[in-house]
Amino acid sequence: MDKARRVLVTGGAGFIGSAVVRYLVGELGQEVCNVDKLTYAGNLSSLRQIEGKGNYRFVRADICDRPAMGAVFADFRPDAVMHLAAESHVDRSIDGPATFIQTNVVGTYTMLDAAREYWDKLPADARAAFRFHHISTDEVYGSLGATGLFTERTPYDPRSPYSASKASSDHLVQAWFHTYGLPVLVTNTSNNYGPYHFPEKLIPLVILNALHRKPLPVYGKGENVRDWLYVEDHARALWLAVTRGRPGQTYNIGGRNERTNLQVVQAICDILDELRPHADGPYRGLITFVTDRPGHDLRYAIDATKIEDELGWRARENFDTGIRKTVQWYLDNEWWWRPIREGKYAGERLGVGRDPKGAKR
Questions:
Q1: Mean pLDDT, rounded, for 63-70
Q2: Model confidence band, residue 356 (pLDDT cutoffs 50, 70, 90)
Q3: Could you list the active site residues?
Q4: Cα separation, 325 vs 1, whole angstroms
Q5: Other beta carbons less than 10 A from residue 95's beta carbon
Q6: Nearest to 250 by CA among 161, 156, 316
Q7: Rounded distance between C-alpha atoms, residue 130 and residue 177, angstroms
Q8: Helices 107-120 + 161-180 axis angle, to 10
Q9: What angle do helix axes 15-22 and 231-244 make, rounded to 10 degrees?
Q10: Kind of pairing between the strands at 287-290 and 250-253
């Protein structure tokens, strides 16, 4: 399939999903149906620039609702599915794992079941061209030591309820390929950052806390390492995977930009010192080390050689250019993040766990 004409995107009002939808609709001119439940992290404001376009439609629905998903397939008749809908925050999975099992595992099964029923009834040429693309995370691989990289052959070793739920969904997708022949692809990505990122995650949380002169929380000693990928680079990689990737294959997507959490926070502080200096002094003075979260993996790093060599993808942003763009975006787009900070999430600590009676520790 060189070019999908109709793409069903799940979770298209989320952070990565909205970047994908904006790219497909706004830049590539694809016809997109965005299915999103609009949980706390779903935000239609992230899609404001494509509202009203003739090649875009939105359906508010739960991916766990099998009749609703069947209706979407029957009505929209997609050439490809890009399945991004998921609960994604590790800290929230520690506090409430049940939602992650329901959305990430049951929801993925429901999508696979609906896709298979639809695919079974397609004409032979359409069946051959159809793709089900499952977007996942490098966290399924567990934790690396000081050296080494995750490859597509790295054994799964998830350590949190979130990563375990995504590992489960990855296995379901591959099972539908081997058992039923459904033409699937799986991509596993490193940490994304960029515009429209819900501010529970490290980078947007630090930017907004800094602007409000609040403490900048860093887990433990800030030594945990992540490989950072600019979200718009990720969106381009996902399109290459669904249009050029080989069915049944996994492709790892990473930015080759390893940084410790402390280095990330310090970089944001230094950019803010330049772009919006404060009379009370450098932003680094707000850095506060807090108790580490349970099961915090030490290091993730992706070997993206396969997608680079097979599909010709290259990240356009390195961490220095991408983080500057990101900080500038938050400075320029208070209209987007202020309603979130004042309504949905004000930056409170998550992931502290619960005692056996269900209360937060």
A1: 98
A2: very low
A3: 138-139, 162
A4: 34
A5: 16
A6: 156
A7: 12
A8: 20
A9: 70
A10: unpaired
> With contact defined as beta carbons under 8 Å apart, do 305 and 244 qualify?
no
- Cα separation, 186 vs 350, in Å, equals 29
CATH of the domain at 12: 3.40.50.720
Average pLDDT over residues 198-227: 94
C-alpha–C-alpha distance, residues 204 and 286, integer Å = 15
Backbone torsion region of residue 29, taken as left when φ is above 0, otherwise alpha when ψ lies between -120 and 50, otherwise beta: left
Q: How far apart are CA 211 and CA 278, in angstroms?
A: 9
pLDDT in tens, 283-329: 999 999 998 878 788 899 999 999 999 999 999 999 999 999 999 99
Give dist(CA 96, CA 99) in Å, integer.
6
Beta bridge partners of 252: 188
Which of 149, 78, 59 lies closest to 118 in space, CA to CA? Answer: 78
Q: Is the pTM of this model over 0.90?
A: yes
Give the closest residue to 82 by CA, choosing from 175, 28, 16, 152: 16
DSSP at 226: E
Count how many domains the chain has.
Answer: 1
Q: Would 217 be classed as within a structural domain?
A: no
129 found inside a domain:
yes
Percent of the chain with pLDDT over 70: 94
Q: What angle do CA 144, 147, 152 make, to 5 degrees?
A: 60
Q: Quick check: is 98 in a domain?
A: yes
Residue 22 CB-half CA count within 13 A: 20
The Cα 191–Cα 257 span in angstroms is: 10
On whether residue 241 sits in a domain, the answer given is: yes
Q: What residue numbers bound the domain in which 171 lies? A: 6-193+230-256+299-317
Nearest-angstrom CA–CA distance, 255 and 336:
26
Residue 13 DSSP label: T
Q: What are the structure tokens assigned to 39, written together?
A: 């949980």
**Model pLDDT, residue 89:** 80
